[in-house]
Amino acid sequence: MLRNYFKIILRNLKTQKVFSAINLLGLSVSLTAVIFISLYIRYELSYDKYLPTSGNVYRLYTENTRLKEDANKLQLPTGLAEMLKKEFPEVKEFVQINQGKQEFIGKNGNIKVGTLDAGNNYFTIFPFTFIAGNPQQALSEKNSIVLTESAAKKIFGNTNPLNQVLMNTQNEPFTVTAIVKDIPANTHFEAEAIVNLSYPWALKPLNWKAYSGIYQYVLLGDNVEAGALQKKFKSVYEKYAFPKDIQLVLQPVTAIHLHSNFSGELAVNSDIRYIYIFGLAALLLLFLAGINYINLSTARSLHRAKETGIRKVLGAQRKGIIIQFLSETILFFLLATIASIVLTIIFSAFIAGILHINPDVFTAFDTASLLVFLGGIIFFGVIAGLYPAFYLSKQAPAFIIKGIMSRNAFNVILRKALVVFQFGVSIFFIIVTITIFQQLRFIQHKKLGFDKEQLLMIPFNRYGKNVEIFKNRLQQNPAIKNISISSWSPGIGYGGSGSWEDQADSSKKISVDMMFTDVHFIKSMGIELIAGRDFSEKHPLDTLEPSGNKKLTGEAFRKALSDRSLILNETAVKVLGLQLPVVGTRLSYPALQGTVIGIVKDFNGLSLHHKVAPLALRAEGNMTSGYTFIRINPGNMHAAIETIKNEWKKTFPEKSFEISFVDESLEKLYTSEKRLAALFSSFALLGIGIACLGIFGLASYMAEQRSKEIGIRKVLGASVKQIVDMLSRQFLRSIFLGALIIFPVAWWFLDYWLRGFAYRISINWWVFASATLIAAIIALVTISYQSIKAAIASPVKSLRTE
């Protein structure tokens, strides 16, 4: 029986080549997109789940229950995790880590690697795969270091690195105690080396006055319910003098990548909302392909009707006919699945390049995933084939053989509704794509309040007075327009911040970002000074650093703090509620002291997802860490970079040269949006392509079914244009109806997405009109071939049997 079904299926594929090709192409392309999206979603959901302990590892953060905004903090007092282990037996282990970069002297030159500073119990909580060394003792000694396999290769080449002494460019020795497999990319931190955490202040007991940038994690015992344990934390708040309204929260390590976007994250995280969006898009594309199959199957029902009638006359049961049609549908979907897997393999590198993601994301299709995917395809194939199978199998054989099909209004309405849905989804994709590109263009061209063009930056850390020597050498070069030093890391942070409770409203907190610069920064960046004066070397108070003067104590120290110069941005003036004239005002807030000497126009050096933050700038006479910003005169950029590189090698022969463009660094902040734009543009092309495949088939069927009507109309004097209009009108109605239905959905979606930007475009009506027009034009072009072909055909051929 099954063999007979299979033969019939192959025969139908051969006899209906055009419709089979349309179905197969639409399904294959859709399933390829679905596979890509599914693999990407699977990868995003897999973050930190490679760890055997992932279900028991939690990161700590604090929540201020009184504050309405900025209530959660990753910055914690030292010793907090250690206290939890001491007080609660459910906490098996804890670890404190810090992320950074270090430059080591390698076999073939200096190598800069990402590092994690961590305690000896790090590998108990994060059990990596060891190639060499003892996990229990790997970080037990001060200045011990564990290298990943790739880092060991880069630094030592083919030499065995175990127990070797590794020097960094600060002349600090590290002993290599172990080698581990490379840390997978799907983790919320990045590192090529793990170093023993030896900061004295990080190892002190709990002290609420000693906040740090150290991240703290705990490992809970098996079967410990985190929510119940978190409630028990309240029992020690008083004992350990927790500040009022502060409570401790356990965050699952597996939730960090998609559910956490705190200030000071170890890496740029994604957003669970994008996973929902991509998942919905995959389902829509799959539905579009399924709709094509249903539409074409029911439209071609007359061609299969006689076959069904004869089978019934010969004794076939309705059940057997339904099984045959369902088998045909499932085979279609399986053939499309095989084709889509081949397409996925071929285009994986290309798609990864478009989406700016690691190609390894698309190689994670293991056996379990393949079985789940195939099961899903078979299930969807059954769903898509149910209606055509039941519709064809219920026809009476006496009428079918005579070529008379029952006129089922539901069949016609369903087919029209599915076409409306197809084009509605396609128009939705077009609208969203246009708006996303508009927002990206707006971001790229929005004035940020400083000049980002021709601007380079070089990071430095603990380089001493040689930074000033390097700076002075470059200033003598005619290719260099200006040069400045700052703690500002474009797109990441300004270098520091201070916060305190708002005296006017205890439910709010005032936060001010701090930027430390040299005296030339404002002029070099092209930032507009709107009141007061700029920093100057002529004014000693501009670069005063009271904390560096040990002779200052008591009242003298406090006076020095209030004397040092500050420049505020406009937002800081508003937030602090300063009265005019602001220049000359002495500030004495808990985390901000000094005398205001100037006000600059707001500039945005971070992300346009957020509004400009209150900012205070303070000049320092000798900066040893931060970024050197170099503006190049228009001309030969390549030659200027070579000059900078040569001067760097002269000044810092032991340091590696690392340079980047500021505008490119800011562009990286919108990687997720660019990825979304690339995906939705692809979805739009796929959606409209699949819909056009469907209407091409339907137009072909309609022209065939109405060939006699068209012949009669031509005999009665109808022109080609009138016949083309008649055949096209039905599809245009479906397009415009689909547009009207989808407009509110598209507007809601875009409004929701744009709320993630502090600076955004307005949703324009012409985008909706343009999307509808694009869909209509593409549809008309698609059906014009069949319409014109039918219109110019000789009526003799269509009427000769009458």
Provide structural commentary:
The longest helix has 38 residues, at 318-355. The chain is elongated and about 110 Å long. The chain is of the alpha+beta class and 802 residues long. Strand 8 (165-167) and strand 9 (173-180) form a beta hairpin. Helix 8 (272-299) runs parallel beside helix 11, helix 8 packs parallel to helix 20 and helix 10 crosses helix 11. The chain contains 24 helices and 24 strands. Strands 1, 2, 4, 5, 6, 7, 8, 9, 10, 12 and 13 form an 11-stranded mixed sheet that branches.
Q: Between the first and last Cα atoms, what is the distance in angstroms? A: 40 Å
**Strand runs, count:** 24
Structural class: alpha+beta
Poorly predicted spans:
none
Strand content: 15-25%
Rg calculated over all Cα atoms: 34 Å
Largest sheet: 11 strands, mixed
Per DSSP, the total helix count is 24
The helical percent reads 40-55%
Mean residue pLDDT = 81
The geometry reads as elongated
Give a summary of the structure in a few sentences:
With 802 residues, the chain is α+β, with helices and mostly antiparallel strands.
SSE layout and pairing:
Blueprint: H1 2-15, H2 17-45, E1 57-64, E2 72-73, E3 76-77, H3 80-87, E4 91-106, E5 109-118, H4 122-125, E6 130-132, E7 144-148, H5 149-156, E8 165-167, E9 173-180, E10 193-196, E11 211-212, E12 215-220, H6 226-232, E13 246-252, H7 256-259, H8 272-299, H9 301-313, H10 318-355, H11 367-393, H12 397-401, H13 409-445, E14 455-461, H14 466-475, E15 480-486, E16 495-501, E17 509-517, H15 521-525, E18 529-532, H16 554-563, E19 565-569, H17 570-576, E20 586-589, E21 592-600, E22 615-619, E23 625-632, H18 637-651, E24 660-661, H19 662-667, H20 671-705, H21 707-715, H22 720-754, H23 765-792, H24 795-799
Parallel strand pairs: 5-10, 7-9, 17-22, 19-21
Antiparallel strand pairs: 1-2, 1-12, 1-13, 3-11, 4-5, 4-12, 6-9, 7-10, 8-9, 14-23, 14-24, 15-23, 16-17, 18-21, 19-22, 20-21
Helix pairs in contact: 1-10, 2-8, 2-10, 2-20, 8-11, 8-13, 8-20, 10-11, 13-20, 13-22, 13-23, 14-18, 20-23, 22-23
